[in-house]
Amino acid sequence: MMDAHFYQAQGMTQMEIAAALGVTDRTVRNYLSERPRPRIKPKRQSKLDPFRDYVRTTIEQNVGMNGELIYDSIRKMGYSGKRSVLKEYITKIRRDTERQAVIRFETEPGFQAQVDWVEFGKQIVDGKPRKLYAFTMVLGFSRFPFVQFTTDMTSATLLACHEIAIQHFVGVPSEILYDNMKTAWVHDGEKWRPNKRLAAFACHYGFVPKRCQVRRPETKGKVERFNQYLEDNFFAGLSMDSYSLDALNESVIAWIDRIKDNKISGLGETRKARFDHEKGFLKPIIETPFDVRDSVSLIVNRESCITWKTNRYSVSPSLIGLEVVLRPSVFGKTADIFAKEEFVRSIPLEEEGAGRRIIAPIDRAEIKKRWEKDRARQAQIRFPKQRIADTKTSDVYVRSPSFYDALIPGGIL
Which of 229, 273, 277 has its CA nearest to residue 108? Predict the structure, then answer.
């Protein structure tokens, strides 16, 4: 067709053009009646093309996935292109993926928080192989998060994490959304209800616990997306062989402080800006804290000790044979002892599994006095004609070694 236009520009007639091109004059007439078509440029292959499916799948599974981590991943797979090309492609995918989700699941400021656990498998934590978990709570409107790393997911730990999160947000949302956590929900035969401890905790702080629909993760999609972000951006960047629980929790709070100024994809605002608006809608925190600790019933043995996680701790001999209640702190290393609901004392806890015997200085003299009295009574029963005083001589400790013989000033046996 371009040749027909060229010949026409030279002044040739349609018949002459037809003869020159070897076609009919009708064909030439059709050529000349059409506008010249633009030349189609061959599409150049991008260096990103072999990796587009991988990038799209990764972003669709986790919209908040860090672009640098994706870049590092595909570089190892052979990508040699520029960051800017990848960034432009990731932005397009995020925009398409998030548009509908943002519209469907937006919540009012201060109305809802979403809670979940993230499991990181068995790790070396504080020098021992343990399972590592992260409690996460995300405010629905601002997406402002809280994270606490733990080594268990017990009911006491769950509630303790709630309490720290509430202090972190300096307020309480109207409702908190959970999945089917065994430590949060029970089935009464008709429907699911929050268990007694969660219900009491919620009543104390004034929020409504809600359970999301089974097999509908999108109902708590904000915390799910953040969990993936936590794994792929924070935890994946640590690359450590062992962890300190305290150091992990300090590091993750510092990480939250850094990401709060990043704009949220699809919203165009930062977490900080939205949280500054949302925190005015949160309920104030009640001054009296809720006791989230477990209550463990223990019997005081004949040695005037209670046993907790292989370690033995002394109490007053007046409690021998009686039941006491131990309330260990969730994240600290202390415990309170109660007898008949009356506070007895606080004790420092030894490392779990250490097998130590700790005699409090306040109990030492009283235990020894109780032992001497019991020995004297036994001697009087067995040897009624022998003077009681003979049983109090110091050589008794040598001839009859026992628990009480080993009472030493250090307090730990």
Answer: 277
Query: What is the residue whose two structure tokens read 């981590």?
Result: 69
CB 76 within 8 A of CB 109: no
- DSSP for residue 39: P
Calpha distance 3→318 (Å, rounded): 115
Closest CA to 292 of 117, 116, 161: 161
Exposure string of 16-25, with b = 16+ CB inside 10 Å and e = fewer, is ebbeeeeeee
CA angle 330, 331, 334 (to 5 degrees): 75
Look up the pTM and report it: 0.66
Instruction: Report the pLDDT averaged over residues 175-194.
Output: 88
* Enclosing H/E stretch for 368: helix 361-382
pLDDT digits (tens, 9 = 90+) for 252-307: 999 999 999 998 887 889 999 999 999 999 999 998 999 999 999 999 998 899 99
Query: Residue for token digits 């004609």?
Result: 385
**Higher pLDDT, residue 186 or 40:** 186
Q: Are residues 1 and 37 in contact, defined by beta-carbon separation less than 8 angstroms?
A: yes
Q: What is the DSSP string of 275-292?
A: HHHHGGGSBPPPSSPP--
Average pLDDT over residues 374-395: 56
In the chain, pLDDT over 70 holds for what percent of residues? 83
In this structure, which amino acid lies at residue 341? E
Q: Helices marked H in 170-210 — which ranges?
A: 196-205
- Class for the domain spanning 112-281: alpha beta
pLDDT at 392: 44
E-only strand ranges, 17-170? 112-125, 128-139, 145-150
Rounded-to-integer distance, Cα 194 and Cα 187, Å: 9
- SS3 labels along 47-91: CCHHHHHHHHHHHHHCCCCCHHHHHHHHHHCCCCCCHHHHHHHHH
Q: Closest Cα partner for 282 from 167, 400, 412, 186?
A: 167
Closest CA to 7 of 18, 21, 19, 17: 17
What is the amino acid identity at position 317? P
Instruction: Return the H-helix or E-strand segment holding 43.
Output: none
Closest by alpha carbon to 59, among 357, 266, 261? Answer: 266
Alpha-carbon span 239 to 237, nearest angstrom: 6
Token pair, residue 32, equals 């000349």
How far apart CA 281 and CA 171 sit, in angstroms, is: 9
Query: Could you tell me which residues come within 8 angstroms of residue 51 by beta carbon, excluding any fewer than 6 positions away?
Result: 74, 77, 79
Cα separation, 202 vs 195, whole angstroms: 11
